[in-house]
Write the structure tokens for this entry.
Amino acid sequence: MKHWSPYTVPLYIKKKVMNKTFFRFFFSFIAVIGGVMLFIIALGVSVNS
């Protein structure tokens, strides 16, 4: 176990929370782009057929 000082614990927790929110934002961003791409492809296919 690491020794935590009273100052490193809040920083560590803050860092973990920041990473979590960043990844959540990142994945939702990718999901939105993927959804838009699929939508455009589906539109293109339906128009062409």
Residues 1-49 form one domain. The CA atoms of residues 40 and 46 lie 10 Å apart. The mean pLDDT is 85.
